[in-house]
Structure formats: C-alpha cells, structure tokens
Design brief:
Number of helices: 13
Largest sheet: 2 strands, antiparallel
Order of helices and strands: EEEEHHHHHHHHHHHHH
Shape: globular
Helix content: 55-70%
Length: 312
C-alpha cells in the first residue's frame, strides 16, 4: 500500500493591493465595481457603468484555472491559496491597465486579453513576465503580487520557475508567509529537506511573531511532514499533536483531516494498524464533511488494504 503524506497549507492569500470599489467573493468569482469598458479589444477604464463582459472574462480565467487545478491531486487549501493569488494578480493587472503609464497599461491589457484554448499558465505567462520586467520600478507591494501570480501559474507546470517566483516575492517581502510556505513545499518536492525545513521554520517563527495561530499550526504540521520524510516518527507525532490542538481550536477541518491522515501514515509505518485505522477513519469523516471526494476515496483504499484477507 502506498501512503502519500500531505503538506498542510495555510490556505490564505496575501492581498497586497486592495481597490476600494473592487471585491472578491469566497466562491472565487471577480466582482468589479467601477468603470470598465471594452474598446477595440483593449480594456479601457472610462466613466461608463461596469462592463459585464469584462467581469465575465476574468471569471472565466479563474474558472479555467480552477478546472486545471481540479485535475491535480492537490489539497483544498493549496488550491484555494493558488486561486486567490491569481485573483489578486488579475485585480492588480486591472489597476495597472487603468494607470497613466502607457507602456505598463498596454502590458496589462495584453495580459487580460481574450485567450484561446490550451494551458492558462502558458497563455498568461509571457505577458505577465513582460509586465513584471517593465514594472521593476513600481511599488514593491504590487511587484510582490505579480511574482506571487507567476508562482501560482507555474506551480504545477514548471515548479522550478514557481520556486524562483516565490523566492523573488520573499526577497522583496521577507514576512510574506504565503511565499515562504510555498517555497517550503517546492523545496520538499525537489527533495531538499534542509531548505524545506528552513522555510517552514520561518513560517512558524513569523506566526509566533505576528501572533497568527493559523500560521503556527501550519508550521508545526509541515515540520511534521519533514520529520516523516526523514523517518523521525516520534518527532513527527510531536509536531502533528501540536498542530492538531491549534487546528481544533481554530476549527480548521482540512488541517485536522490532513494531520489525522498523516498520523495514520505514521502508525501504519510503525506497524500499528489499529491506530492507523482510527486516525484514517477520523480523516475520512472530516473530508466527507467538506465534500472532498478524492480524499475520501483515497482513504477508503487505505482502509480497505487494512482489512484481513477473506478466509477460504
């Protein structure tokens, strides 16, 4: 039986730019207040009412991105964090498209233009990178968000490029917890356990400094994953136990489900199949409550493999 450990994501997004008449609802759709219209294929900000076609186009971009992520074996919190990063980047692109710098506005309009079939990341990346290159003298907080958007778009298609993008965001904003967390995840994917641990300890330290209980929980949970990767079962259990207590206090069902699943994996590795079953049943119940059917099915497979073989 193959048991896959899962990094526990914070599931937050850093909204480095906020427009007073723009909002993003929790369903992932864009709701734009203000004055947007379409002229000759370009996005132009005017005094006219909101252009529903533009809103629909941006929502379509997010829907396409969500559909691409849905095809991956990805934790819900990771998915929502990546989608939120892209949403905020698209918001920022709209702001730039409405700005006074003609070159930057042109770059942003190209980024927001209608796209054909194929990978959304491949379609958006050239214009996003061109905008980043021309935006080097822009506000730091905006440049950080552009790098975060690049990191989100390349997270699965080109993880090396994603790691580089998140590192640039972190260099500009050393307290950007989301960037540091994804750096840790990517370093773990590449097998760089020391670099992953260093990044995730930063998440934990920043969580303590900022009194962010969610970040602290994520830091403990992910350090537990690092310990699992090293085979340090006792250390892993200690980290998971601390994370679980915080997640229960915060009511973070997905964090709890991930921890129960990983505690079950530790028990399985140590040969305690009864304990593994108990943890996985807890994890399955939480994933079922959240409607995360792929995880429910995965845990069902693990539980089935624990069943003794049928008699003759």
């Amino acid at each position: 039986m193959t048991v896959v450990i899962a990094l526990s994501s914070a599931g937050w997004a850093l909204h480095t730019w906020q427009k007073s008449n723009a909002s993003l609802d929790i369903s992932g759709q864009v709701s734009i207040g203000g004055d947007v219209t379409q002229v000759g294929g370009d996005l132009i900000i005017t005094g006219d009412p909101v252009d529903q076609k533009t809103i629909g186009h941006l929502n379509n971009l997010l829907d396409r991105y969500r559909a691409e992520l849905d095809q991956r074996d990805i934790e819900l919190a990771d998915k929502e964090a990546l989608i939120a990063q892209l949403k905020t980047t698209l918001e920022l692109a709209q702001k730039i498209a409405a700005g006074g710098d003609d070159k930057l506005a042109s770059r942003a309009r190209a980024l927001l233009a209608d796209l054909g079939q194929g990978s959304l990341g491949a379609a958006l990346l050239p214009d996003l990178r061109a905008l980043i290159q021309d935006y080097e003298q822009g506000p730091i907080k905006d440049l950080v968000q552009l790098h975060m958007g690049e990191g989100a778009l390349t997270f699965y298609g080109d993880p090396q490029a994603s790691l580089a993008a998140y590192r640039r965001a972190h260099a500009l904003d050393p307290e950007n917890i989301a960037a540091i967390e994804f750096i840790g995840q990517l370093e773990l994917i590449f097998g760089n356990l020391k670099a992953a641990e260093d990044a995730l300890r930063q998440v934990l330290d920043l969580g303590r400094t900022q009194e962010d209980q969610r970040a602290i929980a994520v830091g403990y949970a992910n350090l537990g994953v690092i310990a699992m990767a090293r085979g340090d079962w006792e250390v892993a259990v200690d980290y998971f136990t601390q994370a679980l207590a915080l997640d229960e206090e915060l009511g973070r069902k997905e964090g709890m489900a991930q921890i129960y699943a990983n505690l079950g994996a530790v028990a399985f590795k140590r040969g305690d199949l009864l304990e593994a079953r108990q943890y996985w049943v807890h994890a399955r119940g939480l994933y079922a409550e959240m409607g995360v059917q792929p995880k429910v099915a995965q845990i069902d497979e693990w539980l089935a493999d624990l069943e003794p073989p049928a008699g003759p």
